[in-house]
């Protein structure tokens, strides 16, 4: 009985170790490769530690290949996109959840319908619209389609705001607070968890978005990290050292985000799952 | 009375004001494009010349000349490779890790990490790992005396490798939903059935699966919608090749629209993809609704 229990426990731990290895190994090898010269990547094994540890790959991509610009572009777009998306979605969500106005149901149904539209379906018309407006290949094109709030975020936040006790809002209203004041002074502090969640969702989306930036820009100066890496990859596929160093640069901020907001990220998935 | 109606009007004004930005965004960047993409699909247009109305010709042409049929088949194949395996793995991992313990929770966190990784960056890493000459996979295989294939340049292997990369990326994310679903099942249900002498397998079949149906529906619907739109990984790892072995619908939309500037054809392809996603989603909802006894939110 006792032996059996130990055997089971060992099997369980071993299984978890294997699973962990499957998820971690690619990162570990990519990180190591990013610090190896090209020759070493090609001649050695992925699991060898770097023999000639070097930062050259990073100095090359930042020095010769504009990686700093890509990083700044991505960070800027992600910041604008996240602030706008979260702010405007919260405003809309508050209106849907807490205010009475004619057309509320109809407009909300419209949002729900738009929730079901796949991203790619709108790409062609978005490109045409942006191109007619002269916005293609400008910074604007990168964030405009996402900055005004998405049906998903509005829906997510509305569900949360519905759970805030109405008396608190009524009390503020009786005190003569304007709705904007209620939103910023009463609702925002109480809605902090969902605001963090929506921000994380927006940041992950903005940082990793690929198809739209690929379509909307073709000048070097405007490229985002994802597009930069993809181009880099097709132009220098043999130079794994540079491509992997670039990939690592793109990964680090997201991993940091994850480590810092780990609990929130796990919760945010649960929240969006519960609100299905 | 007077202040009451004044209040109401103020509330109404505030509501429209607060709603305006997101309503503007949803209308201009979602609703209008939907109408436009349908309209464009009836045009022959390269953005430079005047558009010409061609009726349903694009829908015929994309099948005749652009390889829409093949791309659809590859997309369906990809979804079939991806979804069952990913869902089963996610559920299995969730059941395995549905317990407390520091080690377990660390592993759980590690499984979610790929969800955050830029798919483009990870695609590069997988491309390198599956490199035929000095990639990790073939190096390992040669250690045991097997000459591995040139994975991404092989008609047979390219699509499974792309599917593998995507499963790796999203399986942990889906696992979280199953974990949340499992934790919502009251322990008493299992205890009661244990007393009745039900085996673990019977418990899984008759308790876990039925009670997980809402989660399963959510994971499947979002997973299928996402898989039908696969692009990043394909674009970086294979560009749709070798030949057309991994040319999924989205890759084809991209090449006809933004490399060939055939706006009408690309729009027709988008509409076809949209209709298919819509049909599959509705089918899943109907299937699950019929088979779910209790209220689904």
TrEMBL record, chain A:
Location(s), subcellular: Cell membrane
Chief place of localization: membrane
Domain of life of the organism encoding this protein: Bacteria
Membrane topology designation: Multi-pass membrane protein
GO biological process: transmembrane transport
GO cellular component: a single term: plasma membrane
Pfam families: BPD_transp_1
Coiled-coil annotated spans: none
Transmembrane segments: 12-35, 70-96, 108-128, 140-161, 182-207, 240-261
Domain ABC transmembrane type-1 intervals: 71-261
Keywords in alphabetical order: Cell membrane, Membrane, Transmembrane, Transmembrane helix, Transport
Keyword Nucleotide-binding: no
Similarity comment: family membership: Belongs to the binding-protein-dependent transport system permease family.
Name used for this protein in its record: Carbohydrate ABC transporter permease
Native source species: Flexivirga aerilata
TrEMBL record, chain B:
Protein species of origin: Flexivirga aerilata
Gene3D superfamilies attached to this UniProt entry: MetI-like
Chain segments annotated as transmembrane: 18-43, 71-94, 106-129, 167-190, 211-231, 263-288
Keyword Transmembrane: yes
Database matches in CDD domains: TM_PBP2
Keywords on record: Cell membrane, Membrane, Transmembrane, Transmembrane helix, Transport
Protein name (record): Sugar ABC transporter permease
Family, as annotated: Belongs to the binding-protein-dependent transport system permease family.
Location, primary (coarse class): membrane
Localization per record: Cell membrane
Gene Ontology CC annotation, any one: plasma membrane
Residue span(s) of domain ABC transmembrane type-1: 72-284
Protein's membrane topology: Multi-pass membrane protein
A Gene Ontology BP annotation from the UniProt entry: transmembrane transport
InterPro entries: ABC_transporter_permease, MetI-like, MetI-like_sf
């Amino acid at each position: 009985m006792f032996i059996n229990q130990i055997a089971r426990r060992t099997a369980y731990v071993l299984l978890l170790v294997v699973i962990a290895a499957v998820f971690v190994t690619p990162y570990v090898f990519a990180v190591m490769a990013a610090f190896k010269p090209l020759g070493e990547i090609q001649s050695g094994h992925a699991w060898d530690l770097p023999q000639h540890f070097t930062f050259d790959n990073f100095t090359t991509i930042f020095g010769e290949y504009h990686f700093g610009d890509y990083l700044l572009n991505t960070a800027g777009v992600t910041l604008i996109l996240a602030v706008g998306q979260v702010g405007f979605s919260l405003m809309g969500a508050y209106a849907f959840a807490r205010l009475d106005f004619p057309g509320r149901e109809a407009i909300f149904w419209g949002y729900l319908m738009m929730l079901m539209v796949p991203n790619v379906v709108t790409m062609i018309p978005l490109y045409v619209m942006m191109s007619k407006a002269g916005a293609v290949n400008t910074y604007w094109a990168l964030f405009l389609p996402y900055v005004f709030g998405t049906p998903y975020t509005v829906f997510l936040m509305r569900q949360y705001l519905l759970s805030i006790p109405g008396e608190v809002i009524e009390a503020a209203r009786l005190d003569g607070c304007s709705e904007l004041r209620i939103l910023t002074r009463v609702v925002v502090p109480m809605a902090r968890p969902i605001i963090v969640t929506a921000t994380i969702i927006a940041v992950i989306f903005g940082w990793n978005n690929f198809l739209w930036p690929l379509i909307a820009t073709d000048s070097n100066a405007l490229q985002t990290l994802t597009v930069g890496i993809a181009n880099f990859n097709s132009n220098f596929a043999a130079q794994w050292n540079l491509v992997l160093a670039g990939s690592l640069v793109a990964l680090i901020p997201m991993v940091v985000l994850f480590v810092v907001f780990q609990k929130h990220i796990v919760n945010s998935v649960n929240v969006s799952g519960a609100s299905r | 009375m007077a202040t009451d109606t004044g209040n109401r009007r103020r509330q109404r004004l505030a509501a429209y004001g607060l709603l305006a930005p997101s309503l503007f965004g949803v209308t201009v960047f979602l609703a209008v494009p939907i109408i436009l993409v349908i309209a464009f699909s009836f045009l022959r247009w390269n953005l430079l010349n005047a558009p010409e109305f061609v009726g349903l010709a694009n829908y015929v042409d994309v099948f005749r000349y652009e390889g829409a049929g093949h791309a659809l088949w590859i997309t369906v194949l990809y979804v079939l490779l991806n979804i069952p395996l990913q869902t089963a793995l996610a559920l299995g991992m969730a059941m395995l890790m549905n317990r407390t313990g520091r080690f377990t929770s660390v592993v759980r966190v590690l499984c979610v990490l790929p969800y955050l990784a830029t798919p483009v960056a990870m695609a590069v890493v997988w491309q390198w790992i599956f490199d035929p000459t000095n990639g990790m996979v073939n190096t390992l295989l040669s250690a045991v005396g097997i000459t591995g294939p040139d994975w991404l340049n092989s008609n047979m292997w390219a699509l499974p490798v792309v599917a593998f990369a995507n499963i790796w990326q999203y399986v942990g994310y889906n696992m979280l939903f199953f974990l949340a679903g499992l934790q919502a099942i009251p322990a008493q249900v299992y205890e009661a059935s244990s007393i009745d002498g039900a085996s673990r397998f019977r418990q899984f079949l008759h308790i876990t699966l039925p009670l997980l149906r809402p989660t399963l529906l959510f994971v499947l619907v979002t997973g299928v919608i996402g898989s039908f739109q696969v692009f990043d990984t394909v674009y970086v790892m294979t560009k749709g090749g070798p030949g057309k072995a991994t040319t999924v619908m989205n890759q084809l939309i991209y090449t006809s629209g933004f490399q060939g500037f055939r706006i009408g054809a690309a729009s027709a392809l988008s509409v076809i993809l949209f209709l298919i996603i819509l049909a599959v989603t509705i089918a899943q909802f109907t299937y699950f609704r019929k088979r779910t006894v209790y209220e689904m939110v």
